[in-house]
Design brief:
By secondary structure, this protein is of the alpha/beta class. The protein contains 15 helices and 14 strands. About 40% of the residues lie in helices and about 20% in strands. An eight-stranded mixed beta sheet has the order 3-4-2-1-5-6-7-8, sandwiched between helices. Helix 8 crosses helix 13 and helix 11 packs across helix 14.
């Protein structure tokens, strides 16, 4: 019986309290393991660790903090990473960062190891959120993406929106592989009236936002939306789940403006997080450069419609289960009212039905296809 492939995965910008990327890595690793392969994940952290988990082996290498990011670290030193890769001798390489880790594509090419880079963000979109003019942002993104497309065997994009910047430069090695959602953990049955009483503060409408509180996520738009809704006579309150460098500023603004906003920080209990998403009337996802938006998809799985940024990939993901708004608070408030006008039973049923199109098994299969790594068969013909 042949052994599975050793799929070594590298990722930056992962912390114990980070969201979508950490979730995706965990589910993909568990899926690779269940398919009979040997996943090994390498991430940065404050100290070295090597542990076996339900997503396979996870190796942490010391990496420096990135200033102004609220705790993100990177694998900035090439030497330790390269020595570790040499010792692991991967059959496949999967890289979830196109900045300090792009050299790994050439490393893999020299050793004839098929390598994929997963595009988790739009480069020109991120640069625009940092204030770079559109033309300059697009030119810089094109230069970086040409190097990435040349360095790796394949570029994996989770949506057509994410793939567009590679297609713009004529890259021919782009593979589409959507992410997924845990349809069992995220479920409308987790709705909790006690949580609503605790966090809605007696308001008629409970909104939620699950997001990293950093500039590119535009978390201030959620507070803008609450302010506009209340000005229109809508009794709305907001619950914010997530950490980030903007938290203190947002808390100060909520206090100064008298807005009913509760900041919970990172919620480690995933059942409690699902309960919050299932209990909210509407979830807000204001990030304009989201390439997939796992938090939004989790909300849909919990039966809660989502207002998303029209600039992101999320309008196609949420489909009829949500609505898109331009990048300002008034538009988000109008979108909330539009969704609330639907009968509650209808909007929740449509949300759940949309999420059911995105299960993790299909996502794992798509990623393994990108690796040309089919599930390993046992002697009896079943997958391992």
């Amino acid at each position: 019986m042949s052994s599975g492939l050793r799929i070594v995965r590298l990722a930056n910008f992962v912390t114990p309290v980070s969201g979508g990327l950490r979730t995706a890595l965990r589910h993909l690793g568990a899926g690779y393991l269940a398919a009979g392969h040997e996943p090994v994940l390498i991430v940065p952290g404050p100290r070295a660790r090597d542990e076996h988990t339900d997503q396979g082996r996870v190796i942490t290498l010391p990496g420096p903090l990135v200033a102004g990011t609220g705790g993100y670290r990177v694998l900035s030193a090439r030497g330790p990473v390269e020595r570790l890769l040499e010792s692991l001798a991967p059959d496949r390489l999967e890289v979830s960062d196109r900045t300090t880790l792009r050299w790994t594509g050439e490393w893999a090419r020299r050793r004839r190891v098929p390598a994929v880079m997963v595009s988790h963000e739009s480069v020109d979109g991120v640069l625009r959120t940092w204030g770079m003019p559109t033309g300059l942002a697009q030119a810089a993104a094109d230069r970086l993406n040409r190097r990435s497309a040349h360095a790796y065997s394949r570029i994996v994009c989770t949506t057509g929106w994410a793939a567009a910047e590679f297609e713009r430069i004529g890259a021919r090695n782009v593979v589409h592989a959507p992410l997924g959602v845990d349809l069992d953990r995220c479920h409308p049955a987790h709705r909790d009236d006690a949580l609503r009483a605790q966090y809605a503060r007696g308001a008629e409408v409970m909104l939620a936002m699950c997001s990293r509180l950093s500039p590119e996520k535009r978390p201030g738009r959620a507070l803008d939306a609450v302010a506009h809704l209340r000005a229109r006579g809508v009794d709305a309150a907001l619950v914010v789940v997530g950490e980030g460098p903007m938290r203190a500023r947002l808390e100060e603004r909520a206090r100064a403006d008298g807005l009913p906003v509760t900041f919970l920080g990172h919620v480690a209990d995933r059942d409690r997080l699902s309960a919050l998403q299932a209990t909210a009337d509407v979830v807000l996802a204001p990030g304009p450069v989201e390439t997939f938006g796992l938090a939004a998809l989790e909300a849909l799985a919990c039966g809660t419609p989502v207002v998303v940024s029209a600039l992101s990939a999320l309008p196609d993901i949420v489909g009829p289960a949500g609505t898109a708004a331009t990048d300002d608070g008034a538009a988000f408030a109008e979108a909330v009212q539009y969704l609330l006008a639907r009968p509650e039973q209808v909007r929740r049923a449509v949300a759940r039905a949309q999420a059911e199109r995105y299960g993790w098994p299909a996502a794992v299969e798509a990623f393994l296809n990108a690796h040309h790594a089919a599930p390993r068969l046992t002697a009896h013909g079943s997958t391992r």
